[in-house]
Amino acid sequence: MEYRQLGASGLRIPVLSYGTATFGGGNEFFKAWGDTQVEEARHLIDICLEAGVNLFDTANGYSDGKAEEILGRALAGRRPEVLISTKATFPTGPGANDYGSSRLHLIRACEDSLRRLGTDYIDIYHMHGFDAHTPVEETLRTLDQLVQSGKVRYIACSNFSGWHLMKSLSVSERYGWARYVGHQAYYSLAHREFEWELMPLAQDQGVGTIVWSPLSAGLLSGKIRRGRPIPESSRLAQGGGQGPQVPDERLFAIVDVLDEVAAETGKTVPQVALNWLLQRPTVVNLVIGARNEEQLRQNLGAAGWNLSAEQVARLDGVSATTPIYPYWHQQRFPMLGHTGM
User: Fold this and answer.
1) Domain harbouring 324, CATH code
2) Which residue of 132, 155, 160, 334 is surrounded by the most CB atoms within 10 Å?
3) Contact predicate 226/258, CB 8 Å
4) Which position among 62, 154, 180, 186 bears the catalytic label?
5) Tally of domains in the chain
């Protein structure tokens, strides 16, 4: 398993991590993802560790905390072998302070996650979204205090816009506080908007990209095809999809090329789609999910090899989209050095 540096930090993480949104099945939305319980979780974790995947990603909002509890129990006795990533910000209850990135909520959320996970520290602590109602200074000072206390090793963000992330990095630099070293973001062949602003920002500022939903909620699983109904067993059919839907013809054109490249390489469609991501600038890690051993082993097969430059170029071409303003305007003047893809 290949390991890469997480942004401007000393932490090295595997290029694949195992996402635990499939753990718990705590409500109708997450039941569509999966309903993995402790015994099966232990088995899947064993497979990950055998393959060199030692980073496990979760969140306090996954199945109302059940995913963290199951992960903690499944990792009992193996904490020194693994890295744990979890998140806060989204609602955890009905109260006025049960969400957000305030000092009050973050300290309580961190303590609750530590308890559910059965550990005394979190390796990577993400802000799951940007809280526009809390001063950035309050959030980052609180996170820095959690780092100083030893409860958190590194901080990262998720689903930030460019100005959210840049302002946060500036505040951390101004006061000498811990800075975001990673950004967990939505990115795939089907959805390439990340490239317009967030990728150039990550390149410039040394922020590693951790990709969530790298197969676009199953759109790139190879199961969604022209002229066929969506399989009833898929997340999309069961209401567990996320992100904007891709226009049918564009998606099918992408899948057509994925089919061609899969045949050339002897790999599967999802393995090709995941490997394309691993060759993109700033991408450090892909969060892969799996409801069973077969899915997990297939996803693990995305690492350890590389598409050719010609195959990458074909996938680039078929998945390209015209960006929104001002990015389309900037692309007309390459002599000015804009780094947007």
Assistant:
1) 3.20.20.100
2) 155
3) no
4) 62
5) 1
Range of the domain at 131: 3-336
Q: Is 341 a domain residue?
A: no
Least confident residue range of 3-7, 70-74, 220-224, 245-249 = 245-249
Place of tokens 């054109």: 253
Question: Does 239 have pLDDT greater than 60?
Answer: no
Annotated catalytic residue 62: yes
pLDDT digits (tens, 9 = 90+) for 245-290: 666 899 999 999 999 999 999 999 999 999 999 999 999 999 999 8
Please state, in angstroms and as integers, the Cα–Cα distance from residue 61 to each residue in 5, 23, 58, 67, 93, following that order.
Answer: 27, 12, 9, 8, 10
Q: Are strands 152-158 and 122-127 parallel, antiparallel or unpaired?
A: parallel
- Residue 268, classified by CB atoms within 10 Å of its CB into exposed (0-12), middle (13-18) or buried (19+), is middle
pLDDT at position 335 is 85
Residue 205 located in a structural domain: yes
Residue 35 lies in a domain: yes
Amino acid letter, residue 38: V
Residue 209 lies in a domain: yes
What is the C-alpha separation between 99 and 92, in angstroms, rounded? Answer: 6
**Rounded to two decimals, what is the model's pTM?**
0.93
Measured distance CA(63)–CA(203) in Å, rounded: 34
